[in-house]
């Protein structure tokens, strides 16, 4: 992975991309992301010699992306005039997987170094805009058309923000649009507090900065915001049905540890 300009959490884009690429080589993929495999081959000549492993970060990211994709497709089917805000997009090819109609305007947002990588390895498309910005600098909202329903997807992002930053982001989105759906994933408080000792996060010189024991609690931040539901991740039926046998065994054992089954929550809100 070319990470010379990537720092901290940005470097987690590498293992996430690799997991999606390797998933695509399974006989019956969970996500089926052909773009991830194409980009991975261009980024890493040694990719073809690898096999799908049991990394929680990697497998979890594949299942997480599948849940977000399914929710997004459902929302856009009902709101074909929506604006999509894909925040902290990394190298994810969601806009190509979902392939929304021309009536949808899609915005991918991430740090400038990440957007530069996207533009090198992913093709342009109509009604698509990449914005190079920190998600917490909300001046980027000035570039987004208002007066339409919005779909905000923040996958693998919220735990790396402070609670104040998450609050400003979500309430800013609700104030800016007439209606919409917000999709995030969160970790509990205990996972946030011990994240400084997590070997995977330490490898990338990053850590979590917030957590929520009740994933519905952000709905209390704005009178228009309403918790809808959540999707399973570590105990996802699709994970247990499609992942390699060694990965399924690892997750079954992991889910016996108190708190691990709900260590990440994929959460949906509406307003």
What does this structure look like?
The longest helix is centred in the N-terminal third of the chain and has 23 residues, at 56-78. Helix 1 (13-23) crosses helix 2 and helix 1 (13-23) packs across helix 3. With 271 residues, the chain is an alpha/beta fold. Helix 6 (163-176) links the parallel strand 4 and strand 5. It has 10 helices and 7 strands. It is globular and about 50 Å long.
Describe this protein with a few key phrases.
271 residues; 7 strands
Q: How would you classify the helix and strand content by structural class?
A: alpha/beta
Largest sheet: 7 strands, mixed
Low-confidence stretches: none
SSE arrangement, N to C? HHHEHEHEEHEHHEHHE
Indicate the proportion of strand residues: 5-15%
Helix content: 25-40%
Mean pLDDT reading = 90
Strand element count: 7
Count of separate DSSP helical elements = 10
Spatial order of the strands forming the largest sheet:
3-2-1-4-5-7-6
Shape: globular
The rounded distance between the terminal residues' Cα atoms is 39 Å
CA radius of gyration is: 18 Å
Write down the oligomeric state. single chain
Question: What's this model, at a glance?
Answer:
37% of the residues lie in helices and 15% in strands. It has ten helices and seven strands.
């Amino acid at each position: 992975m070319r990470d010379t300009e990537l720092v901290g959490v940005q470097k987690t884009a590498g293992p996430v991309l690799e997991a999606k690429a390797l998933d695509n080589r399974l006989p019956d993929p969970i996500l089926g992301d052909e773009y991830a495999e194409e980009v991975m081959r261009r980024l890493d000549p040694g990719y073809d010699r690898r096999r799908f492993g049991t990394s929680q970060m990697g497998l979890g990211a594949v299942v997480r992306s599948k849940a977000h994709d399914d929710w997004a497709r459902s929302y856009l089917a009902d709101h074909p005039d929506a604006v999509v805000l894909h925040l902290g997009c990394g190298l994810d090819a969601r806009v190509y997987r979902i392939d929304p109609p021309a009536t949808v305007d899609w915005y991918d947002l991430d740090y400038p170094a990440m957007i530069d990588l996207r533009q090198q390895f992913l093709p342009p498309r109509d009604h698509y805009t990449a914005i190079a910005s920190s998600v917490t600098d909300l001046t980027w909202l000035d570039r987004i058309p208002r007066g339409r329903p919005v779909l905000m997807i923040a996958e693998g992002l919220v735990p790396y923000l402070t609670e104040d930053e998450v609050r400003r982001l979500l309430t800013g989105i609700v104030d800016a649009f007439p209606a919409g759906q917000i999709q995030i994933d969160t970790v509990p408080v205990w996972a946030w507090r011990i994240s400084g000792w997590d070997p995977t996060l330490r490898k990338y010189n990053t850590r979590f900065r917030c957590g929520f024991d009740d994933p519905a609690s952000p709905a209390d931040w704005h009178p228009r915001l309403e918790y809808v539901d959540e999707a399973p991740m570590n105990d996802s039926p699709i994970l247990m049905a499609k992942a390699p046998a060694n990965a399924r065994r690892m997750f079954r054992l992991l889910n016996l540890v108190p708190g691990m089954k709900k260590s990440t929550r994929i959460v949906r809100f509406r307003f």
